[in-house]
Amino acid sequence: MEEEPPRPPSFILYLQGQAYAQQLRQLTLWTHHVLLPVYGREVTSSSPWCGRWWEHPEAVAQLHGLWLAWGELTGPGSDLSGPASWHRDYLSSVMDALRNPQGPFAGCKPGMHRPKQTPPIDNVDPFGPPPSSLPPPPPPRPA
């Protein structure tokens, strides 16, 4: 009986519990031993990085996508042009977004992590009926 090839990992934001922890561990190993030693440029105020990047959900999502693309484009069986495609299509855009001064690491400095507050979300279903606390809409104007 022929063995099935291993299934690719699911996107990390869809995972929970032990499955999330295992993916985060693998992502951390790749980030700390491949990505940052090769592509982790100096940290400045105009190009921040957080030493606790795993506490920034946007960074985890962006880095996980970058890692998945790395595996697909540089792993066994990939085309010879895969690494060039990964550099061109994925690396710069992800690192630029993460290291943007207004990005997920804004306010973080070497040795100092600053948690980010998510934008507030009104507790109103935009597709449901209006809440009873709101006044009814005005009647339509005659033409």
Query: Which stretches are low in confidence, meaning pLDDT under 50 for 5 or more residues running?
Result: none
List how many beta strands DSSP finds: 0
Residue-averaged pLDDT: 90
Q: Strand pairing plus helix content: what structural class?
A: mainly alpha
- Tell me, what's the shape? extended
Largest beta sheet, briefly?
none
Radius of gyration: 21 Å
Order of helices and strands: HHH
Helix content estimate = 40-55%
Strand content: under 5%
Q: How many DSSP H or I helices? A: 3
End-to-end span in angstroms? 75 Å
Describe the structure.
The protein has 143 residues and is mainly α. 41% of the residues lie in helices and 0% in strands. The chain has helices spanning 17-39, 57-74, 82-98. The radius of gyration is 21 Å and the shape is extended.
Write the layout of secondary structure elements.
Layout: H1 17-39, H2 57-74, H3 82-98
Helix pairs in contact: 1-2, 2-3
Key words describing this protein structure:
143 residues, 3 helices, mainly alpha
Summarize the structure.
This protein is mainly alpha-helical and 143 residues long. Helices cover 41% and strands 0% of the residues.
